[in-house]
Amino acid sequence: MTRWGLIGASTIAKEWVIGAIRAAGGEVVSVMSTGAGRGQAYAAENGIAKAVTDLDALVNDPAIDAVYISTTNELHRDQTLAAVRAGKHVLCEKPLALSLDDARAMVAAAREAGVVLATNHHLRNAATHRAIRDAVRAGRIGRPLAARVFHAVYLPPHLQGWRLDRPEAGGGVILDITVHDTDTLRFVLDDDPVEAVAFSQAGGMAKGELADAVMGVMRFKSGLVAQFHDGFTTGYAETGLEVHGTVGSLVGRNVMTQRATGTVTLRDATGEHDLPLDHRNLYETALAAFHAAVAGKGAPAATGEDGVWSLAAGLAVVEAARTGRAVKIEPGL
């Protein structure tokens, strides 16, 4: 059994990850929050035996094998490095860090310490995206030429706050959502992005220099081009992922979501066919793979290297939107 400590008394841990850890056979033994009262209340609410306020106390706890980091983005690097130095495996929220140098240092430290570092890119665990990936690999649409991602949603009030008003914490829609688009596209296409152009928008939700919506295009190594639209401000849009090839198209609807839902339709010369889907909890799938990786059986669903790739793309989109130029995507791995 893998025993977990939570770094951050977060909403995502409460709503998704604690349950997934337990469903995958793990145990949550401790939570760290810098606010003692918040941490104790969170522990009581979620059936966690111990709450601490100090990072070192959590990562050096011999009862803990792995940590889940879901603090604000600027804290990820130091918290990951502390956990790795203590010999703990790490599942870290995206983006891994705010700079590529920091993200690469996290990956290198984990590799040197012989511990698992995973990025919590949940979407690649969806039955819909796995069906798209399988269909692309099987050649059912021929050579992929283009893709489109619709990932504009409404950021609910309980998740607002630092995402909208703290650039120093990595707020804004690009490092929150566009990184997920990148990881999902890399997963379904078996291809890597090399260049991005983008325009960002201030629709009135985010403050200061932060963007609350963005549209852009990424070019991939194969020559495929992918459009993306990400936002915090659209309450009535659906999400989707399309991949268009030389002999067919794959159309996923309501698939850019934490929920195990959505449909995938194959369109080709024979007509339209809905692909069979075995919907399962995305986070439970991720935690099962992580526990197996800790046991030396395979890799986590999204590795630290995957997290570096998505951060590289996110930072390129930020720069492209800022400058109006096409920006190279260079993870430096």
UniProtKB/TrEMBL annotation:
The GFO/IDH/MocA-like oxidoreductase domain is annotated at 129-250
Pfam hit, one:
GFO_IDH_MocA_C3
Query: What domain of life does the UniProt record list for this protein's source?
Result: Bacteria
Which protein, by its recorded name, is this?
A: Gfo/Idh/MocA family protein
Q: Does the keyword Protein transport apply?
A: no
- Which keywords describe this protein according to UniProt? Oxidoreductase
Task: Show the InterPro entries listed in the entry.
Answer: Gfo/Idh/MocA-like_OxRdtase_N, Gfo/Idh/MocA_oxidrdct_glycsds, GFO_IDH_MocA-like_dom, NAD(P)-bd_dom_sf
**Can you give the residue ranges of the Gfo/Idh/MocA-like oxidoreductase N-terminal domain?**
3-121
